[in-house]
TrEMBL record:
Stored Gene3D superfamilies: Tetratricopeptide repeat domain (1.25.40.10)
The entry's keywords: Repeat
Organism: Artemisia annua (Sweet wormwood)
Identification of the protein by name: Pentatricopeptide repeat-containing protein
Superkingdom of source: Eukaryota
Keyword Repeat tagged: yes
Length: 986
């Protein structure tokens, strides 16, 4: 064989195989590869270092080429076990009895089959770790992290990352890219920036994919200045954005008003990326128009003239559209008149003007213009007809809407799926179901097909008029048409049938769902969860598909969150030229949730507008805001309104109520709601169980026996608890001395696929947190030698922390030394615990010495470490030093989180510096954290104690505006626990 050891050294390890170019080395046939002996002689590597999988044994001794084995049959067999119906044996037992040959490829492909059922994938993943950890490679971890990230299960993602750090599977560039991408989708730009820095510290240089994700995330979050820094760094490394990324960056910069930066990027587009100058100016024009910056857009037109760049009709269309969006209809009409005089106008311009009137809900002017154009023989676009028809349907003007539809047919316009869907929905609303089906079938006879989204609208409209049989027929029709029926559709219709008590029809829907899943599995492509440019670019597509622009959202939020009276806010909202949609309302409510009362007034106001109707999503968001403000009466009113209006009351709706009552200790009510939920036929999901159990385990309203019952019910329902839930549940059991139940829970975890060391570590850590260090040490001694080293790695920090809390310093130091001898060195948790201990003992120099040692050892301080420094300084009378640490966090990272702010506020108030704490309350709002009742109470009481009663009054007024629903039209005074507390103090 020609391959030399020099080539081998340039290869790479991937999982349990070793690749060098295309050469694959297998342990079963080591004598075929003489270079292995050369490797052993040169650097001490032997056959055992080149781990191989039996599925890839090289049959060709001359070439050493890897022979791929088709694992699809094995993958299908394992997936059938995982997705099999309930039986006496557990999933893990059935997997153990399978007579199949597992390897890392099988594991990875099985996980990809579990893409839509992350809990099932995680269960299999945990089983594999116990069965044979050798098959859990970095690539497998990447797949699992991606799946959990897509499901927004970030607490589990964090757990897997910790496992990778502790184990032999280190993160690769793809791991970092996945993490940055998944957190980026949630707009958690702070976390994304932190990950980017951690990636570089780990020795990985960002590639083009990483920079793309960073720019997408920052632009979505409106962080134009930071996005520009990353863009410049990216270009300096000779990486070029594609067109979609340039457009996204220009849109973001335009919204921020950074005109210089826009021209800087535009110059790069021309000089570096060699994009034609005319195209670049067209992109700039569109960005300015989207953001409502008409003056800057006109300047672009002027520059184009000066540079002799041809101004095409589409440029004027963009400008007119921008003016309509910015509520400058008179200016838009003036441009139309100019174009008419120059005979340079087309039907698209008229469509834009009509759309402008519709955005202002001025349907009469839109129809007047439409009729005049029609009388002049002007043929308008299909989208213009559709928009008019949709507005007429919303206004219950069905006759006019159907006349519009017939006009479309008479003029010979080719209908698209959006127009067809509007007509179908209109017929169903009139209870003309047969006519709706006829429209669908006529369309299909012409070779057209509706999308899944269109069919979802069809189904929802049928359910609104109680035609669930027809809705199920739509599912059958979709299946026969080979259309993808998403889980969202299935879950929605099942929930609807449960709510209506039509339980007999649910099984029919589930049969269709099972058949759909089986078909999907036979066609699933493993590349479907790879991070490709097209996946990254989908962010821009999602933005384009929204029913509103970011500029619209910002305009509404600015009014709602302003400090003016509601009557003035209402006048300002009435003047906005914005089409109000449920999607926009949800975003406004979420963005203005810090201004709870104003947000709910907006919800009430928009619900009365003609042509608008609230959805389940808007009600859910409003209920969440009311619950957070402790206005449970209004939350109940919203819940009953949903039911009266025939909207879907899903498990998410019930969970919101359970969570809001449970979080303040009203667990009796939370339990009653949980019971009502099940009696209504709505099945609790994992979030429901988690919210209720955490509430029952809390200090307020603790009900341990009920928590145990709900936990067991959750397990029997097939849900697997996550790390956060387990920690809270076990700590609660340990605090009430129910260690026997805690150990029983640990045994159950092992049967669910958790490794024995991991399960035991959760219980030991809970014992430490509950202050039962001796019981924890005893449990460590009971663990077998085989699992001892792994267990020590998990519990090291918790044991040290527990001993130090009991002031058993010498035992803690002895434990640290014994762990070092075993090759386990102090973690950030250990160092932080020592810092906390020495500060409590007033040994400030010793605490700082530990902190310096920590950094010298390469152990990076976390938010908890810096927060401990702040607390320690304040409690020891060194407030200036505490502020220095806080500023360092804000400037250099890690950025302070909600807990850091809350802790700092509490410490300052205790030390008689409540006015400084008051400043932190304002700062919390500016960085996006909603101060809690406890935050306001600490500052209020502190200011009163210090004799600063006027400032205390200011805090009271601010808290009632932010957290309650006090400025609702239906409310005469502030409500909630906070108001009562403050009033009593006054």
């Amino acid at each position: 064989m020609e391959t030399t050891f020099r080539e081998l050294k340039g290869g790479k390890r991937e999982g349990d195989r070793f690749f060098c170019y295309d050469v694959y080395f297998d342990t079963n046939v080591p004598n075929r590869f003489p270079i292995l002996n050369e490797a052993k002689e040169e650097v001490g590597l032997g056959v055992e270092d080149f781990l191989g999988c039996t599925e890839g044994v090289c049959e060709n001794a001359d070439t050493g080429r890897k022979v791929e084995k088709d694992v699809s049959a094995i993958v299908r067999k394992v997936t059938e076990v995982l997705r099999g119906e309930a039986c006496v044996m557990s999933v893990e037992e059935r997997l153990n009895e399978m007579d199949v040959e597992f390897d890392c490829d099988v594991v990875e492909n099985v996980l990809k089959r579990c893409f839509k059922v992350p809990d099932l994938g995680l269960r299999f993943f945990d089983w594999v770790k116990v069965k044979n950890g050798r098959f859990v490679t970095t690539s497998v971890y990447n797949t699992m992290i991606y799946i959990l990230g897509e499901a927004k299960r970030f607490e589990l993602v964090e757990g897997l990352c910790e496992e990778m750090e502790k184990g032999s599977c280190k993160k690769d560039i793809k791991t970092w890219t996945i993490l940055i991408s998944q957190y980026g989708k949630t707009n958690a730009f702070g976390k994304v920036l932190l990950l980017f820095e951690e990636m570089k510290k780990a020795g990985f240089e960002p590639d083009l994919a990483v920079y793309k994700v960073m720019l997408h995330t920052l632009c979505k979050c409106g962080k134009a200045d930071i996005a520009m820094e990353f863009y410049k760094e990216m270009v300096s490394r000779e990486m070029q954005p594609d067109i979609s990324l340039y457009k996204l960056l220009l849109d973001c910069l335009a919204r921020s008003g950074d005109i210089d930066a826009i021209h800087f990027v535009a110059d790069d587009m021309i000089k570096i990326s060699e994009i034609p100058e005319g195209d670049v100016y067209a992109y700039m024009l569109k960005s300015f128009c989207i953001s409502g910056r008409i003056r800057e857009a006109l300047e672009v037109i002027r520059d184009m003239k000066n540079r002799d760049i041809a101004i095409e009709p589409e440029h004027f269309q963009t400008l007119v559209k921008g003016m309509c969006r910015a509520d400058r209809m008179s200016d838009a009409l003036e441009i139309v008149d100019i174009l008419k005089r120059k005979d340079a106008i087309d039907k698209n311009i008229y469509g834009i003007i009509i759309n402008g009137y519709l955005r202002r809900n001025d349907i009469s002017k839109a129809l007047e213009l439409f009729q005049s154009l029609k009388d002049c023989g002007q043929v308008l676009t299909i989208s213009t007809y559709t928009e008019l028809m949709q507005h007429l349907f919303r206004g219950n003007e069905f006759e006019k809407a159907f006349d519009m539809y017939n006009t479309m047919l008479e003029t010979g316009l080719e209908l698209d799926s959006v127009a067809i869907t509007a007509v179908v929905a209109g017929y169903v609303q009139q209870n003309c179901v047969s006519e709706a089906w006829e429209v669908v079938k006529n369309m299909e006879d012409k070779g057209m097909k509706l999308t899944s989204k269109c069919y979802m609208i069809f189904i929802k409209e049928l359910c609104k008029i109680s035609r669930s049989d027809e809705a199920i027929n739509v599912l059958d029709h979709m299946k026969a048409s080979n259309l993808d029926i998403t889980d969202t559709i299935f879950n929605w219709i099942i929930s609807h049938l449960r709510k209506k008590g039509e339980l007999g029809k649910i099984e029919r829907v589930k049969q269709i769902q099972r058949a759909s899943c089986e078909k999907e599995e036979t066609t699933l492509d493993s590349s479907s969860i790879q991070i490709e440019p097209k996946v990254l670019d989908s962010v821009a597509t999602q933005i384009a598909d929204k029913s509103f622009t970011d500029h619209d959202l910002q305009r509404v939020c600015k009014i709602v969150s302003s400090s003016i009276d509601w009557c003035l806010k209402e006048e300002s909202l009435q003047k906005l030229d914005i089409l109000i949609t449920p999607e926009l309302v949800v975003e406004v409510l979420e963005n203005c949730s810090l201004h709870g009362g104003a947000a709910l007034q907006f919800f009430s106001w928009v619900g009365k507008k003609d042509g608008y109707r609230h959805t389940s999503e808007t009600y859910n968001m409003a209920m969440k805001i009311a619950g957070k403000g402790k206005d449970f009466g209004y939350m109940r009113i919203l819940f009953n309104e949903m039911k009266r209006n025939g909207l879907l009351v899903s498990s998410d709706t019930w969970t919101i109520m359970i969570l809001q009552y449970g979080r303040i200790g009203l667990t009796e009510i939370a339990l009653k709601i949980f019971k009502d939920m099940k009696e209504s036929g709505c099945r609790p999901n994992i979030s429901t169980y988690k919210s209720l159990i955490i509430s029952l385990c809390g200090k307020k309203g603790r009900k341990v026996n009920e928590a145990i019952d709900v936990y067991m019910e959750m397990i029997q329902a097939g849900f697997v608890p996550d790390k956060e839930l387990l920690e809270i549940y076990l700590e609660c059991l340990c605090e009430v001395d129910n260690v026997l139940e805690a150990k029983r829970c640990v045994n159950n975890l092992c049967s669910l696929g958790f490794s024995t060391p991991l399960a035991n570590s959760l219980c030991i850590r809970a014992l430490c947190r509950a202050g039962k260090v001796d019981e924890a040490l005893l449990m460590v001694d009971e663990v077998g030698d085989k699992d001892q080293n792994t267990l020590n790695g998990y519990i090291y920090g918790s044991l040290i922390h527990g001993l130090l809390r009991k002031r058993r310093l010498q035992e803690a130091l002895d434990k640290i030394e014994s762990m070092k001898e075993a090759g386990i060195f102090p973690t950030v948790h250990v160092y932080t615990s020592l810092v906390v201990y020495y500060f409590k003992e007033k040994q400030i120099s010793k605490a700082l010495e530990v902190f310096e040692t920590m950094k010298e050892e390469g152990c990076e301080p976390t938010i908890v470490t810096y927060s401990s420094l702040i607390r320690g300084y304040v409690c020891n009378g060194k407030t200036d030093e505490a502020w220095n640490v806080f500023r360092k966090m804000k400037n250099e990272g890690p950025l302070p989180d909600f807990k850091t702010y809350s802790m700092f506020i509490s410490c300052l108030c205790k030390e008689g510096k409540s006015e400084e704490a008051m400043q932190l309350l304002s700062e919390m709002l500016s960085v996006g954290f909603a101060p809690s009742t406890v935050n306001f109470r600490d500052v209020f009481y502190g200011l009163n104690r210090e004799g600063k009663h006027n400032l205390a009054q200011t805090i009271w007024r601010r808290s009632s505006g932010l957290q309650g629903c006090s400025d609702l039209l239906t409310c005469s005074e502030p409500r909630g626990t906070l108001y009562l507390l403050l009033n009593l103090e006054l």
